[in-house]
Structures are given as structure tokens and as C-alpha cells.
């Protein structure tokens, strides 16, 4: 592994304490009312997120099923078959570009679809940690600010620091990051559209071991070019530059063979373009590696499923948080009484959990109603389970 250089300077820190009077009942009630509005907006947004997600998931699944039933694989990628004009085709082959990508400032040249220059600056970074406690009837907030030097790819604005004196960063970088993209990319005789080129994102770090220092003020150490007098002990404002590439487009003795991809797209002449499905979706797929058409669609269906469940979970969490904020006013009304306060807090959390679960399932069922009515009915019945379980415990307690 190449050597990684870091700061040897001591970590600097200071503590600031602020004091404010303990909020009264009316003040806390006012804050809770504001939280109720935020909770209501979050609650309503969760319905939209869940409902739209179900429609998107079904539309994508239908399009993928349609694509799998229509896709064809040409006999050769080195000739354009007229009979496949306008059809959804499955193409597998190595990437090829018309010219090298380069950064002459650093002597970097290689055949690839994309070449990325990543620039980092050595800067001060502020870390903030707060703790709140009550003392002598007042609320005190103790905030600990610490400062350390780190390599960062974005400018850290030191003017926002609690203490800028002694921790000032430059306002701009002398060298900027950028990504160069090949204008024309081919697989055999076929040219990739811009949407496919965008999907070539398998970036790998470029080894600089065989390159020389491009300039007297630039020093190469490991896989970085340093704009620094001493890379081992950098100073604030020093730069380091690294490179990465995606889609190697020619066999290279050091980097290996040209990158192979699998594409599913519409053939128009020698162009690979988006394919519009009957459900109104588009298919324009690129996977890194050699896959059959069936494997590509299986991977896409799995990806669609993971995305769907992820958005369902996000929708449920938004609904749960919204209900918590909307019902928090009940907690505020009894927080003067410790016993009632704890019981109410537990009850509100249980209510929010059950209600969010039931409403999420009902919203999912509504999203499926016009596409898969039997599944929607089953999910709707499942949504009633938390309510039934909660109600069955009430008579049991009354009998006691």
C-alpha cells in the first residue's frame, strides 16, 4: 500500500457554555404546537411517498417482464443486423473509444471511457459536541469545539467556525477536480448513447508508480501528486491530486484487458438508444461484466425489489415520526407528573408504531388495488392485525 501522510499537529479544542431559563409550560406547549404542524406535514408526505413508490415498483416490474419477453441477441456485435432495427437487443462486448483521455498537466494518458481527477486540500476541520443539563433551575448547554487538520475534497468554510483565529482555510483551490468523458464509445459496431455512457461508473484508482514528477513544484508520493514542500508534513492549503478511471477501452499491459459490459437497449442503425415499453417506462440497461439477457433482467428485478422495500421503510419511518410529533402534545400536558409522563410516553410510542404499520400496509394495498386486487385485499386484511390485537387486550383487562 502507498504511504498515507497525515498531520502531526496537536488537536486543538475549547469549551463554550450557554445558559437559558428553563422553559415554562406555555412555552413548551407552544413548541409542541409547532412540532405538531411539522408532524402533520411529515405524516401526509409519507402517504405520498408510499403510494407513489408502489406505482413505480409495479410499473418497473411490468416493463422488465415485457423487456425480457421481447429482447433478442444478435449473432455478432461486429455487424449491424437490419432485421433488429427498432427492437430491444442484448449486446455483450468490450468497450472501445476513439482516442485517449489525458491530463497533460500531470502526464496522465490512458484509454478509458472516463478519467477523474480528484483534488484534496489540507484544511482545518471543526468538530462540535454538545451536552445539555439542568442546574440551579436553568438549562445549560456545554459545547466542545475541537479543530484538526484533514485532507478534504471540498472547501471547508472556516468563517463559520466558532473560533476562526488560528484555524483559517483558503477560500479556493488552485487546482480543480474534474471528470473527462470520451465523446464516442463503442461495443463492436454499436455506439453507446449518452445514457449508457453515464452508467459506466466502475471507477478504479490509477496507479502513478510509473509516472515522473510533472513539475518541479509537484512531488509524487505513492498514488498522489502533492503540491507541497514536504508531503510528509503538509501545511494548511497544500494540495494532493489522485486519478481514477472507469471503463478501460483497450488492453493495457499494466491495467489489464478492456472492460466488458452487457447492454440492453433499442437498436437504431448502429446506435443503442432507450426503449419505450407499453407501460410507459424506458429500458436502457448497462451491467459491468458478461451476462445473459435473463441474468440482466433478474438483477434488475432484484434491484427494483430492494429499492421498493427501502422506500417502504422510509415511508413507514416518516409516518411513525409524524405521528410521534402530532401526539407529543399529550406528553407535554402531563410531563409535570413523572408516573403519568412515563406511561403516556410508552402508550404514545405503541400507538404510533401500530398506526404507522397499519396505515403503511393500507397505503401499499391502495397502490396495488388496480393492478393486483387479490394481493391488495390480502394486504388490507393484514393491516387490520395490529388494531385487532390492540382491541383484544382491552376486554381482557376489563374482565380482570
TrEMBL record:
This is TMM43 protein. Keywords: Endoplasmic reticulum, Membrane, Nucleus, Transmembrane, Transmembrane helix. PANTHER family: PTHR13416, TRANSMEMBRANE PROTEIN 43 (PTHR13416:SF2). The keyword Transmembrane applies. Belongs to the TMEM43 family. The keyword Lyase does not apply. The chain crosses the membrane at residues 33-51, 309-331, 343-362, 374-394. It is found in: Endomembrane system; Endoplasmic reticulum membrane; Nucleus envelope. It is a multi-pass membrane protein. GO terms for cellular component: endoplasmic reticulum membrane; nuclear inner membrane. Residues 1-26 are annotated as: Disordered. Pfam families: TMEM43. GO terms for biological process: lipid metabolic process; nuclear membrane organization.
Amino acid at each position: 500500500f502507498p504511504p498515507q501522510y497525515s498531520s502531526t499537529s496537536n488537536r486543538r479544542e475549547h469549551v463554550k457554555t450557554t445558559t437559558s431559563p428553563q422553559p415554562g409550560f406555555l412555552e413548551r406547549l407552544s413548541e409542541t404546537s409547532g412540532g405538531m404542524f411539522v408532524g402533520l406535514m411529515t405524516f401526509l408526505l409519507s402517504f405520498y411517498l408510499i403510494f407513489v413508490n408502489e406505482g413505480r415498483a409495479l410499473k418497473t416490474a411490468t416493463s422488465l417482464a415485457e423487456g425480457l419477453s421481447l429482447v433478442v441477441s444478435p449473432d455478432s456485435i461486429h455487424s449491424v443486423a437490419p432485421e433488429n432495427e427498432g427492437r430491444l437487443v442484448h449486446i455483450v462486448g468490450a468497450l472501445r473509444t476513439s482516442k485517449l483521455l489525458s491530463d497533460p498537466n500531470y502526464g496522465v494518458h490512458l484509454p478509458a471511457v472516463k478519467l477523474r481527477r480528484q483534488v484534496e486540500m489540507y484544511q482545518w476541520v471543526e468538530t462540535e459536541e454538545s451536552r445539555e443539563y439542568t442546574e440551579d433551575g436553568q438549562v445549560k448547554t456545554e459545547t466542545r469545539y475541537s479543530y484538526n487538520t484533514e485532507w478534504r475534497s471540498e472547501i471547508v468554510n472556516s468563517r463559520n467556525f466558532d473560533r476562526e483565529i488560528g484555524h483559517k482555510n483558503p477560500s479556493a483551490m488552485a487546482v480543480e477536480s474534474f471528470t473527462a468523458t470520451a465523446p464516442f464509445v463503442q461495443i463492436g459496431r454499436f455506439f453507446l448513447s449518452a445514457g449508457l455512457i453515464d452508467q459506466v461508473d466502475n471507477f478504479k484508482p490509477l496507479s502513478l508508480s510509473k509516472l515522473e514528477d510533472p513539475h518541479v513544484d509537484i512531488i509524487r508520493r505513492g498514488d498522489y501528486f502533492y503540491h507541497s514542500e514536504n508531503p510528509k508534513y503538509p501545511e494548511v492549503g497544500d494540495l494532493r491530486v489522485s486519478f481514477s478511471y472507469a471503463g478501460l477501452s483497450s488492453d493495457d499491459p499494466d491495467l489489464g484487458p478492456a472492460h466488458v459490459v452487457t447492454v440492453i437497449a433499442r437498436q437504431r442503425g448502429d446506435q443503442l438508444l432507450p426503449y419505450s415499453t407499453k407501460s410507459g417506462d424506458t429500458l436502457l440497461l448497462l451491467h459491468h461484466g458478461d451476462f445473459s439477457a435473463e441474468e440482466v433482467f433478474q438483477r434488475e428485478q432484484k434491484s427494483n425489489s430492494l429499492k421498493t422495500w427501502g422506500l417502504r421503510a422510509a415511508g413507514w419511518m416518516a409516518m411513525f415520526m409524524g405521528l410521534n410529533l402530532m401526539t407529543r402534545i399529550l406528553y407535554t400536558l402531563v410531563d409535570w407528573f413523572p408516573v403519568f409522563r412515563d406511561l403516556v410516553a410508552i402508550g404514545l410510542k405503541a400507538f404510533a408504531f401500530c398506526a404507522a404499520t397499519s396505515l403503511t400496509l393500507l397505503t401499499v394495498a391502495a397502490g396495488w388495488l388496480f393492478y393486483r386486487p387479490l394481493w391488495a385485499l390480502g394486504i388490507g386484511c393484514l393491516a387490520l392485525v395490529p388494531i385487532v390485537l390492540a382491541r383484544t387486550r382491552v376486554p381482557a383487562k376489563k374482565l380482570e
